[in-house]
Amino acid sequence: MKKKYILRSRKHKNVCIVFQFDMDGLISLFEISGDYTADQHRFVMGNIPIVIDGIKRFDKSKFTIEEVPMDLSWEYFWDAYGHKVGKKKMAESAWTKLDDATRIKVLISLPRYDAHLKATGIQKAHATTFINQEYYDNEY
User: Fold this and answer.
1) What 3-state DSSP class applies to 94?
2) Which uninterrupted H or E stretch holds 130?
């Protein structure tokens, strides 16, 4: 089965790097998003893991590595978000405009967002607002 991972710098949380590996464990996709410097770009380009075991060589004190769900479909997000109010077509349109790296960031942020809402008592935003206002980039 294909595996996909997201790598984030602990220092620069707005940079998201996605690695996907095929059935043989060889890299099949590499995607970087966010605001990154030329030095950060050179570092990443020089350290792209060619095989799946290469993910392990990133320093865990400097990076977080998470295996991500392979289902990046609208339906998966809509179910995972769980707040099915507002204009569904607008939310779907916002979702389809996102690249895979950003979709992954959105899905990974959902548990933190839900925990934040529970702790603060704040009402959950409509899905369109969550996506368009980039709530997924907030540090909860």
Assistant:
1) helix
2) helix 127-132
The 8 Å CB, 24+ separation contacts for 120-125 are 124/83, 125/83
Task: State the pTM of this model.
Answer: 0.57
Which residue in this structure is represented by tokens 């603060």? 120
Alpha helices in 1-140 (DSSP H): 38-46, 74-81, 88-96, 100-120, 127-132
C-alpha to C-alpha distance for 132 and 130, rounded to whole angstroms: 6
Residue 42: count of CB within 10 angstroms of its CB: 10
Return the domain boundaries, the chain. Answer: 3-67, 74-137
pLDDT digits (tens, 9 = 90+) for 73-99: 999 999 999 999 889 999 999 999 999
**What is the C-alpha to C-alpha distance for residues 23 and 132, in angstroms, rounded to an integer?**
34
Please tell me the distance from the alpha carbon of residue 104 to that of residue 125, in angstroms, as a whole number: 19
Q: Check whether 3 has a pLDDT greater than 90.
A: no
At 69, the pLDDT band (50, 70, 90 cuts) reads low
**How many CB atoms within 10 Å of residue 139?**
8
* CA atoms of 33 and 26, how far apart (whole Å): 21
Rounded to 5 degrees, what are φ and ψ at 11?
-85, -40
